[in-house]
Amino acid sequence: MFELNVTHDPKRRSWLASANAPDTPFPIQNLPLGTFSRDGVSHVGVAIGEQVFDLTASQYFNLFTGDALSALQALSSGSLNALMAMPESFSSALRKQLSEHLVVGSGSQTMISALSSSLLLERAALKMSVPALIGDYTDFLTSEYHTERHGRFKGLKEPLPAAFKSLPIAYHSRASSIRVSDTPVVRPRGQYKDASGAIKFGPAPMMDFELELAAFVGQSNALSKPIALKDTSAHLFGYCLLNDWSAKSVQWWEQVLGPFLGKSFMSSISAWVVTSEALRPFRSKPQAKAAKDPALLPYLNDPLDREFGGLDIEVEAFIRSEQQRASQLAAQRITRSHLKHLYWTFGQMLAHHSSNGCNMNPGDLIGSGTISGPTDESRACITEITEAGKKPLKLSSGESRTALEDGDEITLSAWAKKEGHVSIGFGQCVGTILSAQGGAELDV
Ligand code: MN
Question: Does pTM top 0.90 for this prediction?
């Protein structure tokens, strides 16, 4: 299930020079899938170095055979859903044949080079889109550190909810407002309680980012048929970055049944889906449980998940304010964290999500929750970084922040790294806050 194959070989190099640059997120070992518009039509492509191999355009050139050809045909709609719905052997066959086309010494190099204006596009020039139709989106809350700090800031006597270590906590979020990286984020209007205790409506203060990773569900399960934890890896197609933008002023006032308008105005995801197969070398033991923690119930406990349920992925967040951009200052890193800080694995999240018989569909998105760790450096949202506004964040421009302001740009990035393997990246998830638009006559 997590076996490595020739596509993971760290010695593999591509005849496309930019794929061999030591700092590229997209070496030949990665081959992530994304969608973009070409001549007004949605195409599916694979990022390789600075370029994108256009899978949709390749269908005219007989480059793929067998299961890889079936996978290619499943992508003809210009979206990943139909491929996600198929057993992994199909996307795996496509990955293997594409890797063989792009590897140094490939017999296809001359042909692909001759067709390069059709098949190879400059990645930076493409207008990417959300790679799959996301029918449902669930966001979990799996960092004990994030949860405990937020509980403390809100003055809760028991900052960690009683159920936190017995089950992965989540809420059903909004799929319709998920947008791809580089889409601006309009500050929402909302109802909140201000510092004096007055109930207000207007542009939401306390805007925050949340640094998360998300999984795309692959094969579905039928209604009333839970996915067993041991089978979850066959149902997790791939991963992307997720910024769960939050208007914390609105969220903290409204939240009784869970987050609602404080989150649903927009969420951002990175454009490239790094497949579960590409991440196999980076599987790791998940966070060790403390002796005093409750024992895992059988449906959340599986030997394979205890050994390989984690992922060696580093995550970072950067800020660049309008003033930092005007002064040509570099984006300032404000968070560095790691998936090892999560209490629950993606497998456990999916097993729990479907444990009541809830049916999961190809393209559904599952967020990890804010990936905060124990240290100050690994606080993965502004609320934690500033102790809920008590310790302002200093910017390189001389400004300070207790929350995001209009014009602030947040960039998330992630890298899977492990000794002995070529690091693979997720690219970036970027969003800039724009001022609230329209409706000012209703503000109080
Ligand atoms: Mn979140």
Answer: yes
